[in-house]
Specification:
The complex is a heterotrimer. Chain B is mainly alpha-helical. Helix content of chain B is 68%, strand content 1%. By secondary structure, chain C is α/β, with parallel strands linked by helices. Classes of the chains: A mainly alpha, B mainly alpha, C alpha/beta.
């Protein structure tokens, strides 16, 4: 008799005895040794060094010795209007792209998962934007979005636009342009992850609910969404993290233009361009804090939704 | 059952004309129109740039940006493809990227699945801490850790351990790409692990299997969709990575694909002349096999859970 | 299923095409991306021999140096040819590593190696604005190359001399020039190219109005207006030619002055008018593409675009354009200095052998070789006057080659040049995008003052 109740996630191990529990804990840590080794070697030193550098006045090419300046960098950062603008730009970018990518990605995943006739083609199509290297895709879109580029040309010919438009140069459409490219590029990532998540949901649930007279929309809200939640959570976290750290697209489109810098662009131009390693490290710490805030928001939402 | 009671007392409600219409065959097809519209919009949005790249790849250099814009080239040419293939650093780059991306993917999956087993099937103190430690690795922008990574890569000693100089070798990429593939792999595989029902595992333990056997024979096959998904995502992420490849590789023989593609230089030899047609041809050359590769592996994502194992 | 077959078939077809092309192009050797005019010209014009080779061989033969040279492609092929000749004659092995194509990636590569005090390279190609930043890490070349330095254009030598040390030898020079369409000037009744900026604006407007009837992508004037280093070059030309100074003069920041504000506002008025609206995103590539595709009447660019304009494969205006000096306002016509120098790493283990390599590469015969086979602008005026060189590079006609050169304030800003230039080009890009100059220049002035302090 197949069960109709949704599967219970992560069953708690019954505590047969503390000795067994201790053995299992040792085993778990043993399994984690390779990962922790990688973290220690590859991540600990660079991250630790960044934290340390943020309290110094280190400069790339200057020959004067590096000295400790305490919170001076952070004080300057607090008053840095360019950095504040870059945070705001990045936040706008993140919210727009993650929202669109999520909705579009979910739609595509549902379509490919269903018995829709064109799903094979959809499967192939959805991967194409993603297989193209980001820098090349960004350059491609940049040349397409110029006022003498194909998008303006097609727009005018199809009478959607009245005249050619300089999408990237015009500050009012610049952010929309860069969002359009990122959505194009990373929706496949979201779709693929959600598709894998959809595969985990057993078909019997849908069959059983159909017997009970459930409509597709009800099935979606009551079965699909709750069971897909772990996949959605992971997807949203990593997409948001990546969006907050965006660099390549902004660099190709805008370079160092004021008013359209992302946080990572500002960090890069400070560290590599200007050579202020210490101040740049403080910027990186600030970026870390902004990202951490988002993670906390997601976790709180997760806990509330789990009630 | 509710339907049985309803069938006992049929209630006849008058049905409005619009309702009749939407239930008729014509109405049903019309209801699907917004759906098909969405599909078409998605297709155009996803494919148009690629179609444009295709057009540019077959257009001779001088006609690329002429006005009026030629949507289909007047005199298509295979010259751009020839240029792309003739570039030795491009051919080598395809191999280099495949090696690095493949290696990083296998490493991430191996290490990550072990970690996911621990984090997804065991409860112990410090579990959340480890998860967030992994996550924190990806919370810094790449540029922030670039300087320190460069120092490490060039060889340094940390206490008793001596790190060799792996600057300008593919190992430097293998090593540093783990920073962004590993956390993601661990998190996704852990969430898949958590979603697996516990009955099979319990049954295996009862039968006397060791944890390793449980992992290898029971959990891993069930995890296949997750493994393929994260494998693909990690592969493409490593394949597309630009900043580390630019900073740690110097010899053109070791260029990876993103660096190679942006290194094409036009006839004049000047760095200001980017042979756009050749670059687009190179893009087509790498995109088509990648899509083919992913399509082949996608079969395993859509395989779903092995039938019969859960029912019973 | 069908999709998969189609995709796999296409992939197989591409592989087959690749293999067949590989066989057909069996003649291509080495890592050059093209086997074109450069290499065939090189066959006709061989690399010069190293003078004093026997003595060098005795003293340094067997040593090995690493040279970070030009990016992959025809220029890398040129470096390889020269290095091969040098090794053949002197026995000093030279490993040529191409630098990243993007200028700022190349800067950060060198900066990283210098700050880690590495000896992983001996000789490097550095941009004309980098000597100030890298000076503490470079060998003083005056003792050994001082005599040769006198042959070169003194303006560049001055640029490469920091605190009395000659830290780099000029290798090839670049300077801003005006390209114009001879056929369009004739069509609209102009007998000669514009001499002042106002003349250029007027001519561009008339030609644009006429041409847009048949080609709505046509614009009067294109230049480098993106928020990047290239804008600093263009803006310096506007400033100096309007008598507004050179951003920083005699150690003092002078960028905020009335003449400067006026010329900037004049240019701001032209954006979207005689220039495309997105000229504020144009770098060298977009500008030359617009011009050679026949979509612009005037262009400001470096000399490299000349050979592209004459190449029938890329250009629709072969034989229909010419070059001259840039216009001026109330000052004189000028051209910003670009180009590259060769410098020796202080931490190198083969300093003397490296200096000999630099001596060879910057010598007059090699400069002539570069000019003829790769259209690189020589930095030795005598070479620039050579008839064969002028024939290959028409922009070296005396009336153009003798234009007054102006340099960006790299010597004043030293290690903070990138930061200072960023302040300048970000601000000017804002002005071009619509803000009045008087609202932006004061803040540029104060930021530059803060950097110089």
């Amino acid at each position: 008799m197949s069960t109709v109740a949704p599967p219970v996630p992560a069953p708690r191990r019954r505590r047969k005895s503390t000795k067994l529990k201790r053995r299992q804990t040792r085993l778990a840590w043993a399994l984690l040794v390779p990962s922790l080794a990688v973290v220690a070697v590859v991540a600990l030193y660079p991250l630790g060094k960044t934290v340390f550098q943020s309290f110094t006045d280190e400069e790339f090419l200057a020959l004067n010795p590096v000295s400790w300046v305490g919170l001076e960098n952070y004080k300057d950062l607090w008053n840095d209007t360019v950095f504040r603008d870059s945070i705001w730009t990045t936040l706008k970018f993140t919210v727009i792209t993650v929202a669109f990518e999520f909705v579009l990605g979910l739609a595509i995943a549902l379509i490919v998962n269903s018995s829709f006739k064109g799903r094979g083609v959809m499967r192939a199509v959805m991967l194409v934007p993603w297989a193209i290297p980001t820098v090349v895709a960004a350059q491609m879109w940049k040349s397409m979005l110029q006022s003498n580029g194909v998008i303006s040309d097609a727009g005018v010919r199809l009478h959607i636009l009245s005249e050619p438009h300089a999408w990237i140069a015009d500050p009012s459409t610049a952010l929309a342009a860069v969002c359009a490219v990122d959505i194009w590029k990373t929706t496949p990532f979201v779709a693929l992850l959600l598709l894998a998540g959809l595969q985990v949901i057993p078909h019997d649930l849908y069959e059983a609910s159909e017997v009970d007279g459930a409509k597709p929309l009800q099935q979606f809200w009551k079965i699909t969404l709750p069971l897909l939640w772990p996949a959605i959570f992971v997807t949203l976290i990593f997409r948001t993290l990546d969006a907050l750290r965006v660099f390549d697209v902004f660099y190709v489109f805008f370079g160092n233009r004021l008013g359209t810098q992302s946080m990572a662009i500002y960090a890069q131009s400070t560290i590599v361009g200007d050579g202020y390693v210490g101040y740049g490290a403080a910027i990186s710490m600030a970026i870390f804090v902004v990202i951490a805030l988002f993670v906390i928001i997601y976790l709180t939402f997760q806990r509330v939704a789990m009630r | 059952m509710s339907t049985a009671s309803e069938a006992a007392r049929p209630v006849i409600r008058p049905v409005s004309r619009s309702r009749v219409f939407w239930r008729s065959p014509l109405g049903r097809s019309l209801k699907r129109v917004p759906f098909y519209l969405l599909v078409i919009v998605v297709f155009v949005y996803a494919l148009f740039p690629f179609a444009w790249a295709l057009r540019c790849a077959f257009t001779p250099e001088g006609d690329l940006f002429s006005s009026p814009l030629q949507y289909i080239p007047d005199s298509p040419t295979l010259d751009n493809f020839k240029q792309a293939f003739q570039a030795e650093f491009f051919r080598k780059a395809l191999l280099n990227s495949a090696l690095v991306a493949g290696g990083v993917t296998l490493l991430s999956l191996a290490i990550g699945s072990l970690a996911a087993f621990a984090l997804g099937r065991f409860h112990f103190r410090g579990r959340s801490l480890v998860m967030y430690l992994m996550l924190s690795m990806t919370m810094f922008p790449s540029i922030a850790i670039l300087g320190a990574l460069y120092t490490m890569i060039s060889g340094f000693s940390l206490g008793p351990i001596d790190f060799p100089n792996i600057y300008d070798t593919l190992f430097s990429l293998l090593f540093t790409y783990l920073i962004f593939t590993l956390p993601f792999t661990i998190w996704v595989l852990t969430s898949f692990m958590e979603a697996l029902p516990g009955d099979l595992e319990e049954a295996a333990y009862v039968d006397g299997a060791t944890p390793f056997q449980v992992f290898y024979k029971v959990l891993l096959p069930l995890l296949l969709p997750g493994l393929v998904t994260t494998g693909l995502l990690a592969f493409i992420a490593a394949w597309n990575e630009y900043l580390f490849a630019l900073s740690f590789i110097q010899d053109p023989d070791k260029y990876t694909v993103p660096i190679a593609i942006t290194s094409f230089v036009g006839e004049s030899g000047s760095a200001f002349q980017q042979p756009w047609g050749t670059i687009m041809a190179a893009t087509i050359i790498i995109t088509v096999p990648l899509v083919a590769l992913v399509l082949i592996f996608q079969r395993y994502i859509l395989a779903g859970l092995t039938a019969g194992a859960v029912k019973g | 299923m069908k999709i998969r077959i189609v995709v796999l078939a296409t992939a197989a077809l591409l592989v087959a095409v690749a293999l067949s092309m590989n066989v057909a192009s069996a003649g291509t050797a080495g890592s050059s991306a093209k086997a074109s005019s450069a290499t065939s010209a090189a066959k006709a014009y061989p690399a010069p021999k190293v003078p004093n080779a026997a003595a060098l061989k005795k003293q340094y033969g067997g040593e090995s140096i690493t040279f970070i040279g030009d990016s992959v492609g025809g220029s890398h092929a040129r470096d390889l040819a020269l290095a091969k000749q040098f090794t053949k004659d002197t026995g000093i092995k030279v490993k040529v590593v191409p630098h990243p194509a993007a200028s700022d990636a190349s800067y950060s590569q060198l900066a990283r190696v210098f700050s880690s005090k590495s000896s992983s390279f001996d000789v490097a190609m550095i941009d004309v604005v980098w000597p100030g930043a890298f000076a503490p890490y470079l060998v003083d070349l005056k003792p050994k190359l001082g005599k040769e330095a006198k042959q070169h254009a003194q303006g560049i030598i001055q640029n490469d001399t920091i605190d009395g040390k000659l830290v780099a030898m000029p290798w090839f020079g670049d300077f801003g020039i005006l390209y114009y369409r001879t056929d369009l000037l004739r069509k609209y009744g102009y007998k000669s190219p514009p001499k002042t900026w106002n003349q250029l604006f007027a001519m561009a407007k008339k030609i644009q109005d006429g041409e847009q009837a048949s080609n709505d992508n046509f614009n009067g004037f294109v230049f480098q207006g993106n928020s990047y280093e290239g804008l600093t070059c263009d803006a310096l030309e506007w400033y100096e030619s309007a008598g507004a100074g050179g951003f920083i003069d005699n150690g003092k920041v002078t960028i905020n002055n009335a003449k400067g504000a006026r010329i900037l506002d004049q240019f701001r008025a032209q954006i979207g008018n005689i220039t495309p609206r997105d000229v504020t995103t144009y770098q060298e590539g977009e500008a030359h593409t617009a011009f050679v595709e026949g979509n612009a009447a005037f262009m400001r660019n470096w000399p490299y675009a000349y050979s592209i304009g004459q190449d029938p494969k890329s250009s629709k205006i072969v034989g229909k354009f010419s070059v001259t000096v840039l216009p001026h306002a109330s000052g004189k016509s000028v051209g910003t200095v670009g180009g590259w120098q060769l410098a020796v790493n202080k931490y190198s283990k083969h300093v003397d052998a490296s200096i000999e390599f630099v001596r060879y590469m910057t010598s007059a015969p090699v400069q002539k070789f570069n000019a003829i086979t790769n259209t690189n602008v020589p930095t030795i005026p005598a070479v620039a006057r050579d008839r064969a060189v002028v024939k290959a590079n028409p922009y070296l006609k005396p009336e153009i080659a003798n234009v007054m050169r102006v340099t960006r304030p790299a010597r004043d800003l030293k290690t903070h040049y990138n930061e200072g230039s960023k302040v300048i080009y970000q601000g000017i890009n804002q002005i071009l995008n619509g803000r009045p100059a008087s609202s932006v220049l004061p803040s540029i002035q104060s930021k530059l003052n803060r950097i110089l302090r």
